[in-house]
Amino acid sequence: MASRLTSRRFAGFLGLVYGTGFGLLGTHLPFFPVWLRAVDVDPAWIGIITAVPSVTRFTTLPFVTGLAERHQALRGGIIVLGFATAIGLAVVGLQHQAWSIFLAYAVTCCVWTPMVPLTDAYALRGVRQYSLDYGPLRLWGSAAFVLGALACGALIDVIAAQYLVWIIAGMAAINALTSLGLRPLRPLKPSSTALHGANALLRDRGFLAIIVASALIQSSHSAYYVVASIAWRQEGFGGLTIAGLWTLGVLAEIVVFALSPRFTLAPATQVVIAAACAAARWTITAWAPPIAILAPVQLMHGLTFGLTQVGIMNLMVHQVPGHVTARGQGYLAACSGIVSGSSYVLSGVVFARYGQNVYYVMAVIAACGGLVMWSARGRLADHPHSSGSGG
To answer: What is the pTM of this model?
Structure first.
């Protein structure tokens, strides 16, 4: 009984952190580019600035996650980085020149981008310790993303767009405060093979296939994140309509996370299906369809993002030893950063010249991710690590 209560408390506080963290993303992803345009940053610079988080994922992020893991400080790292992020975003809001925004945002992203990998590592440790499912824990983040996007979408029709950054900074402060409620996890016993395990990940072809496929499929969303809101506003959509389109996608994502414990297909197969859906989604989006078609297409986000995330996290649980969970998440984020950083910049440049045709490029990227996972599916099934044993 006590163990069950502890498990529920763990899940409850983790749900709050996921909720406030993705509530922050719900205000940031759709409307940070809108704020950049409101302070007269041109589209090419927007692509460069929004690529900064991706760059920090393969530069500073792996060092931060490795440091937190070596010192058994996942919880402490999340708390410290959360408060640093809130301060950093407030500093970003005080800037109005492209170069100064870029510099302030770059420093902020050095402490912000490790937050999700550390939280995922903390969550996967809890999945092992309390025998939980990842999907139902993660869905609270998606639900909060919906609320954040809707709230910000309503406010954009009421307040001037140049003030949107303060909503984003405020959400970061709330996320930092909720992180104080995270419960300490049982420390892992020191292992003489820990260093070997961390280095061995980068020699494991199965693990490399996981992180490359994830990077390609999730990075195919780059144009969506960078230019979708701008393009929809150019087409005459209001703030609530834009927020509603984002919300449709995330609602579908929530359904996928909630139902994920019932999925029977192999995780690698789930990722391949997600990649195929992403290629179809971006091809249709490139046609700039009317709202009657665009709205149902947005529901595919549950598969293109949600199913990819579920499949990849289940593969990580079984492929990555428990004592290097955080570093495994760091490598996953670093690979994603390399690919998505390039695709963010590419999205801004291609959109400036060719408009909606940028989504055709995203369709090709997603298809490549599916091919990588398809080619590795047998290898991933052959040598899984036991989640119960921690590797």
So the answer is: 0.75
